[in-house]
Structure formats: structure tokens, C-alpha cells
Amino acid sequence: MSESRRTWQDVILPWSTFVSMLAAIVMVFLLAPSERDQGIVQRIFYFHVNLAWMAFGGFALVAGTSIWFLRTGSRRADRLAHANAEVGMLFTTLVLVTGPIWARPIWGVWWTWDPRLTMTVVLWAIYAAYLMLRRLGGEDDTILRYAAVLGIVGSLDIPLLILAVRLWRGVHPAVMLSDDPDAGLKDPLMGWTLLVSGIALALLFTWLVSLRARLLAVDETVAAMHLEGARS
Amino acid sequence: MWTIVRKDLAIELRTGEMASSMFLLALLIIIVFAFTLEPERLMAPEFLAGLSWTTLLVAGTLALNRSFVLEREAGGLTGLALVPIDRGSIYLGKAIGNFLLLLVAGFVLLPLIAILLGTRGLSPTWLLPGVIVLGVAGIAVIGTLCAAIASRTRAREVLLPILMFPLLAPLLIAATRTTAGALVGESASDLQSWLLMLGGFDIVFATAGWLSFDFLLDE
Prior knowledge:
heterodimer, A: mainly alpha, 6 helices, B: mainly alpha
């Protein structure tokens, strides 16, 4: 089985993730200066913002791999779409966890219906729906096409969603819209910390996706072997 | 395409199953709202818009679920897929059928809810029917696509709202906002970006459904 051989991904991805994550943690906690008004809580921003970008970018990858699957029928594309959705959902969940940890001391509430919060929670629900379809779809291969269509339709929805929530809250300005991320980035070290955290999280994302995609491939092989065993 | 619409409407007109169960469910939802939300506080036009769309969405889920389940039970989809017409037309036919059913429901529900809630301060404009048409069209195009997807799975009744509600989030925001606006006499130019958004949503997802049905009907 070619799947079981160690590839460059097994060496480069975990190690580069490890090193960059370590660097990011050192920068976030030790090097970056504390934000003047918010203090130490603000440091969650370096991970939170990057996680959010990747959560939204992750759905673009789901859509891209879904189109690839529908055009070529490649099983690899299907597995990548599935793996991207799983890791994307994990990252969206982390956004929704890190956000309130910051919001509670700064805004005084865990949650508010700010545009960004609203669209993130709907994105989470779209990811959840996609994975639910995968889970409930049954063994049949046709479900792969159904999932791919949903992946593409979901990605068409996201720009409209962003527009809608902006307009929605634009009409009734929220009281606590002071979450302008540029406000705290006067210090160049803060920018670097954000960048390094972004690289670390992007590598983590890639590594997790490649692990999940491989595991899904192994799953398919095992299922095929079972089927063959049942036949003979 | 129109044959499919006619067939679905003929089934509905003959049995009246869907319309009567949707109507009953909608009525019960309104009663539950009245019990749980203190009716005295629900007289503002915003509540009328929000509660109407919520009720229509939940009751509409029933109809959308049935639209493909009936076909699958009777083997009708396989038959349809064998007919040498464009798959996209099957989608459009189904979507138009659902749209007409939901539209009737919408036009019945809105005044009914207004009466039951005793909404005050209404001055509806000619925009209102247009807004309802655009909003219902959005529910129909997404709902038909999601119902086709969900009908393939084991847990279709559960899966349909799970697929459909998050995708409808932008439409529901726009539909509620424009309906509330049209109810109190805001003009089309006040609501311009919202109306564009409603229309854009309908066009984008009608096209997406039409194109993607090629991948969905291979049995």
C-alpha cells in the first residue's frame, strides 16, 4: 500500500508546525507588547483572527475540491473536500471559543449579534450541515456527488451571508462595534506575531487535513477489503 | 418542465394534503408564539414580519420534505430521470411547484398572523407582495435543492432543515427586513440594497440548482 509509506508530509508538516507554533507561542506570550487598554486578554487576538481567516478560507477549499471532484470523479478530491470540511469546522469552533473568552472581559458579554459573530456562527452551521450529510448519507457513492454540490452551494452562500449581516447591523448600529482589529497593531512586533501565528496555524491546518485525508483513504481501503471478504 | 409543475399541483389540488397540514401547523406555531411570547408585546410590525417568515419557513419545510419523498416512494424520480429532458428542467419544475404552494401559504399567513397578533400601525405599500414573492422564491430554490439532497439519506426529515436553515440565513434577514419595511410604508429606494440582495439570492441559487441537478439525479 502506497498509503502506508512515510512521505515528506510526515516529516515536514509536523516538524514545521511544531517549530512555528512554538515560535508563535513565544511571540504571543513573551515578545509582543501588551495592548494598552485591554491588557493581557488581547493576546488571544493573534490566534483568534488567524483561525477566523482560515475558517472562512477552509470553505473555499471545500468548494474548490468539490468542483475538482465533480469534474474528474477523483476520490482524492472527495477525501480532501471531506478533510477540509472537518478541519474547517474545528477551526470555526475554535474561533467561537476564543471569541467569547476575549469578549466577556472586554465587551462584558459572552455573545452579541455583531456581523462578524453572526456570520461565523452561520458558517459553523453550514459546515455542520455538510458533515451531517456526509455522516447520514449512507454507504452509497452517489452521496459523494450530493456532498460536493452542497459544498459548492455553501460557498456561494457565504458572500451573500457576509453582505446580509453587514447590512443588517449597519441599519441598527451595535453598541459595541469597537472591535477594530487595526486599533492595537501600532507596534510592528504585534504585526510579526500575527504573521507567525498565522503561518503556524496554516501549517497546522494543512497537516491535519493531510492526516484526515489519509485516514479517509485507509477507511475506503478497509471498506473495500471487507466487501471483497464478504464476496469470497 | 411545466408538465412537472402541473403534475405536482394536480396532486396537491386533488388531495389537499400538503396545504391542510401546512395550514394547521402554521396556525399551531402562531398559537405557541402567543402562549410563549405574551401577545401584548407582539403588536409591532417587526414582529409580524419576523413571525410570519419563521412560521412560513417551518411550515414550508413540511411541504418541501414531501416534494421528493412522494417521488422516491413511487419511483417517480427514476421515471423523471429517464425522460429525455434536461435535468435542470426537472429542478425548475419542482422548484416552481414548491414556489406556488409556498406563495399561497405566504399570502394566507401574513394577514392571518396580523389579525391574530392584532398588529398596530400598518400602512403596507405595493412593495409587500413583491417582497413576499422574492422571499418565497428564495425558500423554494434553496429548499428544492436541499430536499433533493436530503431525500437521498436515511434521516431526510431531520436533515432538510439542517441543510436549509443556515443557507437561508441571508435570505431570511433580507426578507424580514424588507417585509417589515413594506408593512410600514418604506419606499423601494429606502430598501434598495435589500431588494437587490433578495433578487440576487434567488437568481444565484436558482442557477446553482439548475446547473447542479445534472449531478443529483443519477439513480
